[in-house]
Amino acid sequence: MKTLATLVLLLALAAGAAAAWLYLGIERSYRGYSSEEQFVDIPPGLSTRAIGSRLVAAGIVHDSLTFRAALWKSGRETRLRAGEYRFAEPLSPLQAVDKLRRGDVYVIHITFPEGLNVFDMSKIFESKGFGSAASFVDAGRNFEGYLFPETYALSRHTDAPKLVRQMNDAFEGALTPEIRAAATARGLTVRQLATLASIVEKETGNPAERPIVASVYENRLRIGMPLQCDPTVIYALELAGRYDGNIRRDDLSYDSPYNTYRYPGLPPGPIASPGLASLDAVVHPADSEYLYFVSRNDGSHVFAKTLAEHNRNVQKYQVEYFRAGRAGRAGSPGRGGH
User: Per-residue confidence of the chain (338 residues) as pLDDT tens digits?
Assistant: First the structure.
């Protein structure tokens, strides 16, 4: 009996020691990889045992036993979420389990502002390390204007075709039933809506002006007046690889269906990706008789109903403004003074 009691005592002590070792182990930080960072991919449907094996193999947790103990301590209802995870600091098994429970997956945020075309977007895509600019242009060339501008949280393995599909899905989602119904009521197809909204987006970044700018182009289209929109000429030059950052007088006669100085009506398609505000402005334009507008050089525009009024505005806000600027620069002291 004495021998049996001793054996039981030893087993109890061993069990206690093992429990203590596990308890300390699940809270002890560990880092078993030598690289600066370690990525672990957890596919959907992977069992918890297989997840533990992946974490052990990657050096995130020391062994499968402490992983299972951490999982048990976290609770039976703990669900580990699929995705790619990035690890860079020592973590305890409990912290590793909590990271997967929260779904703290690794993503790269990429932002596309309103009014960019596929060429502009491709440069942002490449700068984030997802792939070449050319791959984005190839994937997005047939989706010009239908790639919704916003911030996307992407896996580092996202390629251009996948991102283009995601951005196009976001555009379709932005076209709410109300916007679609309002466009139909105004006799606009989705292509016409996106095209006109892209022009409005390129012409003004002032939210209050968008409905007014939209009304100008609506009024011009209604009376058959050419849109005469500089951004459409710039886009035509970009397509031809001829745009160098400046638009010249002879560019206004460049032969392209996108040149709204030469061809009346809307161009064949969008020239950039409009945001929601510009889409809404096209289906809810201001009630105006304006046919012209010119920049005040402060981010806003002055609008006119007649050509005579517009010419006066051009004289004031363009000719005289830049003439005064040149005179001011000519009259300012040089480096050596006077």
Answer: 556 544 444 344 444 444 444 555 578 999 999 999 999 999 999 999 999 999 999 999 999 999 999 998 887 667 899 999 999 999 999 999 999 999 999 999 999 999 999 999 999 999 999 999 999 999 999 999 999 999 999 999 999 999 999 999 999 999 999 999 999 999 999 999 999 999 999 999 899 999 999 999 999 999 999 999 999 999 999 999 999 888 898 999 999 999 999 999 999 999 999 999 999 999 999 999 999 999 998 889 999 999 999 999 999 988 887 777 665 544 443 333 33
Calpha distance 147→152 (Å, rounded): 12
DSSP 337: -
Three-state DSSP class for 79?
coil
Domain with residue 48: its CATH number is: 3.30.1490.480
Q: Are residues 261 and 252 in contact, defined by beta-carbon separation less than 8 angstroms? A: yes
Parent domain of 298: 291-326
Evaluate whether 93 touches 30 at the Cβ level (below 8 Å).
Answer: yes
Q: For the whole model, what pTM was predicted?
A: 0.82
What is the CATH number for 300? 3.30.160
**DSSP assignment string, 211-242:** HHHHHHHHHHHHHT-----HHHHHHHHHHTT-
Q: What is the DSSP string of 49-64?
A: HHHHHHHHHTTSSS-H
- Closest Cα partner for 147 from 187, 201, 203? 201
Say how far apart CA 228 and CA 232 lie, in whole Å.
8
3-state SS, residue 303: strand
Structural domain contains residue 331: no
Provide the domain count of the chain.
4
- Specify whether the CB–CB gap between 221 and 260 falls below 8 A: no
Question: 3-class SS at 116?
Answer: coil
